[in-house]
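Progress against Task 2.4 (sequence-to-structure conversion) is shown through the following example record, which the project officer requested during the mid-term review.
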Amino acid sequence: MARRKATRLSPKALLRLRSKLVQEGYGNFLFSEDTLTKAYNLETNRPEDTIENRIRPVSDSLLSIKNPDELAERVKSVLIEGPVVPIPGSYYMFRYMAKTPEIKFDLNPLVQVTEVFSYGFIAYNFHWGRNRKYTYPEVQGGLYQVTADELRDLELIPFQNFQMKPPK
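Structure tokens generated for the chain above:
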């Protein structure tokens, strides 16, 4: 089988891809500019503080939870689910189910996206400590964008769930 060459997407192509994936049912959760401004405080250039950090108010309630999937769901409950196509340089958490047999994967990745392609994206996974490839159809639901301040808190929460995809 011939390998397809990955094509890095321009911002315009990225927008077209997002629109196409939404039409195909992969994350029909597009935000208006107003929603993003409110959610990520884009109106000011001041750094995120504890008041704007969505993770800290629930961090005490996470202490008694041992199941990583329950932890991830509780954290996602205070975040906003976004589209499946990420923005390079941004931080996200999401649910991922690998399709490749006999591969170890993180069911609840916490990542910084480095490159976006027509088939998926490459991101630095903070649980693995290295870059990983992710394909759009295997992202379960949308992506949950987090701020750099929230990322620092999320790195302390053990919601990683490493799984081995069984052989076919």
